[in-house]
# Entry
Amino acid sequence: MLAHLASFAWDAPSVDLHALAPEIVVAATLVVVLVIDAFTGEEQRWAASSVAGIGLLVALVPVATLAYDGATRVMFGGGYVVDDYALVLKALFLLSGYVVVLLSTNYIAEGDYWEGEYYQLLLASVLGMMVMASARDLISIFVALELLSIPAYMLAAWRKRDLKSDEAGVKYYLMGVFASAVMLYGMSVIYGYTGSTLLAEIAPRIGELVTSEPIITLGIVFVLIGFGFKVSAVPFHTWAPDTYEGAPTPVTAFLAVASKAAGFVALLNLIYVGFWGRHDVYEPLMWVLAALTMTIGNLIALRQTNVVRMLAYSGIAQAGYILAPLAIAGSSPEAADQALHSIVVYLLIYAAMNLGAFAVVMAVARKTRSAEIDTFGGLFSYAPGLTVAMSLFLFSLAGVPPAAGWFAKIGIFQALASAGDTSGYVLAVVVAVNSVIAFAYYGRLMRVMWMDDVPDGDTTPIRVPTSITAALVITAAVTLVIGVVPGVLTHFTDPINLLALGR
Amino acid sequence: MSEYSEFVRQYLTVAIFAAVGIGLGAGLLGLGRIFRPVRPQEQKYLVYESGVDPVGTGWSQSQIRYYIYALLFVMFDVEAVFLFPWATRLEAYSTFGLIEMLIFVVILALGLLYAWRKKVLRWV
# Structure
């Protein structure tokens, strides 16, 4: 025993600092914000938000240099991979984190709550998402999931003297922990049968066990269901509307965009690298989840009277569209390629248009102190700029050119059709029917804004703070430019390839 | 046909697993219901809290100062769990291990610094 210990040799793992630079920058920003918060008084409270925003932008620099370099960097025995796919998504998380900081600045400064901690939690959550984009190992995926979720639970309950916010935090926390437990159980089954936590090593072994071990199905289903909670897929969506309504609006925007995207990233990593050989298991699961999610999300959205809740249910429906290509991902290599690209493109466009819609809701709520649909009445008469911006985002969410949403939706249809089998075509019809249903509630909000009278006759213009204006300009520009020239986006997403790592 | 029956068999595992999970919980509780005698008394419906009769509402405020110390203790307890195996083989991990562990300890120490500056460590 002792001899064995003495002969224990250990080689330092090669750490590629360039590949880790984006994460290191965000972690360093987190430490700086913590120190600033600990050693400054009330009058320097604004510093935390500025430093957080600048840190997120600085972290984009190494992402850009890595993308320019173009080489796939593999670390820690294949558990951590920095490739085009990871970089595109890291840029998405950093940019949406930056827009959320812009949205938060006034909201948090005007409320009676601590600022430093808010930005620390936000940065920690963004860091977890960036790790998730690169994680190719069950344990890394779990650590990344917890790193992005635990700060999010606390952010949801940020207005701690408000019962609705407490409810939001508790519901999100309980459902999140339950999902983690289910997922960990599935991971333990998969590890038990394959003897590895590396996705690339799980893939071949899981393929050999196709017929001999039915219990593997249980593991795969449990792990995928764990992330079904994260992306608020029906029937695991019950936390989403209450949490979105009760949480502070910038946090809602963050949860609805960045946190959901992180869940999809994990699903893509798992399905494309780890569970690739088992399309017989994940395809039907994803088919049912996608069809249920978009249909039920849209039907409940029709009946909402609160804009934030309506956007929450519309977000659930959008999650259904994004899940749809996974239902045919395993039918052929071409279909897999199409599905991957359509999902990544949809995630990027969804982030821009949804963050924009939340920015408008926040700007309007600063005047009306409410997010009920009625309070948007006659918005055009006193806030024409916001109305045009909101219409752009709603057109995009509904999939009407020239806003970017149409390109995302075309991608989903192309992917579903590329499978060339009945299940793909039927799901495409479900997506089409749902897109029509979605017009009803997007159109209703649009009619209220453009045609109804102002409810209380108060037509004083809205003063929109600079940071929210900046967020609106960024998201509107992205939505419009991608809608008119989709090539801007496909230039970055075309080189993406996940399959090469699984083989 | 055989392809589909294979597929159904795969998912049958999931269904059986769920049925056993629900059946076990429901069955055991139901079994208790059949066998236990029912003699309702008001005392039996009190909330049990360490043998002390509950007074007031469930929403009363409680003292959280012990809780903060418990949190800080857990933090440094976990640090110790990582430090011990590292310390026994320090020479094997050499400079790389030293730097990694320093980063870990410094980040945890920052947390303590933050708690101290926010006056969490004062016994109120």
About this structure: Chain B has two domains: 1-39, 61-124.
